[in-house]
Amino acid sequence: MDSRSWLLLEPDPPQLQLPEDLRARDAFGGRDCGWVAQMRPFVRHFAAPGARVFDPFCGFGTTLLAAALEGREACGLEIDPARAQLARERLHRHGIDAPVAVGSLPDTPAPKPFELCLTNVPYFGCRWPETADSADARAGQLYLERDYDAYLQRLRDIFHGVRAALPEGGYCIAMAENLELGGRTLPLAWDLARVLGALFVARGERLLCYARESRPLAAGDARTDRSHEYALVFQKQRERICLDSTRDELQALREAGFGFELHGGFARWLADPGAREPADADLLLADDQAEFDRLLWWLHERHYALSLWGEPLQPPLRLPRLREHWYVRAQRRDRLGRLVRLDLSLVDQAGASATQ
Ligand SMILES: C[S@@+](CC[C@H](N)C(=O)[O-])C[C@H]1O[C@@H](n2cnc3c(N)ncnc32)[C@H](O)[C@@H]1O
Q1: Domain 243-354 belongs to what topology?
Q2: Which CATH class is domain 6-235?
Q3: How does pLDDT run across 199-227, given as a tens digit for each residue?
Q4: Distance 67 CA to ligand 1 centre (A)
Q5: What residues of the chain score a pLDDT lower than 70?
Q6: Residue 57 in contact with ligand 1 by CB distance below 6 A
Q7: What spacing in Å lies between the alpha carbon of 236 and ligand 1's midpoint?
Q8: Is the CB of 66 under 6 A from ligand 1?
Q9: Which of 145, 159, 258, 281 has its CA 20 to 30 A from that of 71?
Q10: Could you please report the per-residue DSSP string of 297-318?
């Protein structure tokens, strides 16, 4: 892979395409099958030889085939049992023995440990034939999700499972495009990037361009032929905070009259600068709703992004809800890219979590 931010892709040669007899057996006619050519550069670049590539939405096994052709191991998960069987048969015809399990993260784990997650997400609003599947296959099928927020939430749960299994430093690359739905653009790719951004560190995007004939468009018509997708490149990595800015912010909090106890890695690092660099500052707060509200508004006004388990949060927040989620994260990045990350929890919770 070179430094260009786009890849111009040509269709696969016939011997690598989904065979016609397998396509004919698919309830959806294989319309959502990707290209081996789309996956190979990412396998080569982001998985070392011998590493294993995992696709949590493996469909017809295209990613797994690309991985095997590049000398990497592969494994996949697919919710639809009939599709999983088509993937196995396709791989078998290429002499590839890669495990394809039926199910979905986070309930069903990846069949094997892996070093790279590479996938094409199932698109929202896809006209998947509802009657074709068994009740089991329908239950987790993202193509059948009716509500966009619920769809994004389920993607978040699935990629949370990817994150838990991915080793530190490993990449998670997901391909998606923005959609036309109900006469409007649904920014699925950008929303997916936001979901992934709450779990991983963003490393960049590549634009995948599919060669297609152009056609004239009436003046003012904004629709395109959507002949591109984004490959969103994320990495599991501890993001470094700016220690000086964090110290300054803690001082500003004290000057604004907020009482808190500092514990965890940041407190250890203050006591001993030779200690491991902390990933955040953990603040323990008294069980006082009014003071907590004041603190959240103060942070909000200083342009901190507040979140609860990766979901954006607007003040106020009731303390029972904070207790359920353990902590609120407050992050701020300045124009030099310096990051401050504060985790806010209640004093009694720190004691409870320490005993778990
Ligand atoms: C875009 S297709 C993947 C096609 C694949 N990249 C290929 O070219 O062979 C997305 C797949 O995700 C599957 N899927 C949908 N919801 C799922 C879930 N919750 N867990 C696992 N797979 C799911 C769909 O059945 C579909 O086969």
Answers
A1: Beta Polymerase; domain 2 (3.30.460)
A2: alpha beta
A3: 999 999 999 999 889 999 999 998 888 89
A4: 17
A5: 130-137, 349-356
A6: yes
A7: 23
A8: no
A9: 159
A10: HHHHHTTPEEEETTEEE-S---
